[in-house]
């Protein structure tokens, strides 16, 4: 398992971890201030191509962070699945970006830089922050009028790798080269429009540009760990959990969890579509085992009180899907004990269990012959928890998320 990101809450406790957040926030604000980002004239000048410091600092920070993050993930030091990425709502994001850009031009600040300016008692920064609070208040009072649009065009954790359907390495190289070209264009604008002497920037920037390009190609060369690589790093510990049957949850405990208002149970049926159509537990979502990895981003955005319950006909396929999700750091993943066959044998009437059993059925296949494709219309698909008195050992323990639950600029 990758050592980073650290689980600060687990290491330091809830409130002490806020000291770290405070130090990082103060350091971020200090860097913005000494870079001149508390000056609205300096910030607004970029829109007139006279002073491009904002573009160079922001884009420079983006590519340095990108290279370090994916370099660290390539070396197995960092788990990218635990890095928070804002989910994409395409059209609301575009409209929101245009509104923020318009406010940036006329006000000279973005939300973060306005706080830096206000912290140093600049009047324009204070007025901008008051405007931000007014905008937040008006948004909160009116969002109900356009809530459908606000939640429209949801694309989840959508990145450039998803957009261009390619790996991390090529994207890192292309973005770094694009940034270097943008820096060259920005300096030309500063020279000919802003009348700034480029000699003041120093020649060290050429070495820095060459260094970041070299590091980008290093990221391309070392690649990113596959699911199998990630599993290999944790296999010893996690296989012990399988051998001790810590991950297999009795159907009675699942029924109990489904009745708990503090817990959200997501049942994932990884069998074939044919078996799913013949019988499935009510509200179980069908995701074939070979597609389970593509849902990792969606699963990691679920609240911390979500429990994922995987099920196949017996346990074999669901256990393999469990290995895939655990390797991708999805928290609170378990497997239905005995699979769907065990669920049917417990919650169906005895006559059906006796008469419909398939003798000598193959491993991880349905052990019962249903008269037709019932889906969730069988009584066993939605058992009444008050009818059954089942004895079981409770095993589900909610684990804290290692990564941040939210984030983003401003």
TrEMBL record:
Keywords: Membrane, Transmembrane, Transmembrane helix
Protein's name in the database: YeeE/YedE family protein
CDD domains: RHOD
Lineage: Bacteria, Bacillati, Chloroflexota, Candidatus Thermofontia, Phototrophicales
Residues spanning the membrane: 18-37, 57-78, 90-113, 125-146, 166-186, 206-223
Gene3D superfamilies the record matches: Rhodanese-like domain (3.40.250.10)
Any Pfam family matching the protein: Rhodanese
All residue ranges annotated as the Rhodanese domain in the record: 268-352
InterPro entries reported in the protein's UniProt record: Rhodanese-like_dom (IPR001763), Rhodanese-like_dom_sf (IPR036873), Sulf_transp_TsuA/YedE (IPR007272)
Keyword Glycosyltransferase: no
Cell division recorded as keyword: no
């Amino acid at each position: 398992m990758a050592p980073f990101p650290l689980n600060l809450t687990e290491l330091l406790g809830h409130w002490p971890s806020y000291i770290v957040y405070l130090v990082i926030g103060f350091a971020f604000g200090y860097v913005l201030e000494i870079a001149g980002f508390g000056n609205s004239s300096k910030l607004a000048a970029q829109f007139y191509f006279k002073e491009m410091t904002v573009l160079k600092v922001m884009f420079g920070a983006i590519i340095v962070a990108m290279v370090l993050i994916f370099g660290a993930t390539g070396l197995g030091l960092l788990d990218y699945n635990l890095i928070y990425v804002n989910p994409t709502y395409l059209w609301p994001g575009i409209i929101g970006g245009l509104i923020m850009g318009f406010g940036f031009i006329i006000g000279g600040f973005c939300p973060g830089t306005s706080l830096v300016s206000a912290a140093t008692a600049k009047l324009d920064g204070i007025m901008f922050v008051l405007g931000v609070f007014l905008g937040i208040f008006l948004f909160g009072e009116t969002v109900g009028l356009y809530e459908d649009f606000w939640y429209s065009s949801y694309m989840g954790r959508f990145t450039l790798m998803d957009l261009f359907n390619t790996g991390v390495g090529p994207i890192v190289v292309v973005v770094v080269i694009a940034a270097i070209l943008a820096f060259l264009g920005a300096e030309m604008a500063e020279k000919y429009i802003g009348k700034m002497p480029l000699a003041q920037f120093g020649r060290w920037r050429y070495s820095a540009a060459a260094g970041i390009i070299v590091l980008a190609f290093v990221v391309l060369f070392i690649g990113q760990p596959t699911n199998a690589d990630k599993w290999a790093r944790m296999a010893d510990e996690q296989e012990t959990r399988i051998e001790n049957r810590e991950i297999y949850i009795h159907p009675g405990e699942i029924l109990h969890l489904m009745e708990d208002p503090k817990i959200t149970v997501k049942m994932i049926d990884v069998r074939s579509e044919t078996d799913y159509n013949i019988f499935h537990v009510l509200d179980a979502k069908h995701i074939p085992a070979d597609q389970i990895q593509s849902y990792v981003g969606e699963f990691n955005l679920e609240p911390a009180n979500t429990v994922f319950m995987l099920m196949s006909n017996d346990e074999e396929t669901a256990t393999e899907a469990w290995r895939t999700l655990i390797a991708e750091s999805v928290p609170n993943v378990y497997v239905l004990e005995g699979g769907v066959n065990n669920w049917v044998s417990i919650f169906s009437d005895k006559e059906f269990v006796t008469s419909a059993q398939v003798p000598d059925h193959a491993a991880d296949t349905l052990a019962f012959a249903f008269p037709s494709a019932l889906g969730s219309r069988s009584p066993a698909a939605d058992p009444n928890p008050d009818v059954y008195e089942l004895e079981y050992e409770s095993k589900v323990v909610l684990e804290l998320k290692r990564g941040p639950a939210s984030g983003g600029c401003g």
